[in-house]
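Predict structure. Chain length: 195.
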Amino acid sequence: MEMIHRKKPAYSPEVVEDRKYGYQKDNLKKDFHGSCGYCGSPDHIFGGKSGFQIDHFAPQSKFPELTNVYTNLVYSCPICNRGKSSKWPSDSPVQSVKGEEGFIHPCSHDYSEHLYRNEDGSIAAKSSVGNYMIQEMKLYLLRHQVIWVREELRELILEVRKKINHSSELVAKHNELTAAFFEYDEILRANIDQR
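Prediction complete.
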């Protein structure tokens, strides 16, 4: 079982709170390590920062007083942001879970208590709340798995490339990883619009 994120997101303490949320995208990208807070997909898959969105964890439509509160903002891919939308289980911005429904903030230490990533890159639930999140944010989509595996292969290729020094064994491994990378890249491209 792996964590959803390659690197756990955490809010930077030096961020200025009183800015309009739209001006916080650069800070959010940095704090979320250029990846979706919910599914861990890197922003470059969606066209970089401009393709990513700012989610209001406690929805702006229900809690307008939190519109510009930095710790209520989540750097999000469009798939997760649309899936979560303005759903919220309670009438309180601090009660993100009610019974078996709700959302865990991705910067919370509890996030990994509800969701994890299988060895094959798919996202799975550890709890009923995790299952609710998977369904609502469409974390079950093949794209999340393929993107994860593709990025893992990319990292391995870069690692092997650094170590290649006329070693036929490493060249063969590099070629094997590159072929696997392009296989997953083609799956992603062929299924990018599939649900």
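Summary: Residues 21-140 form one domain.
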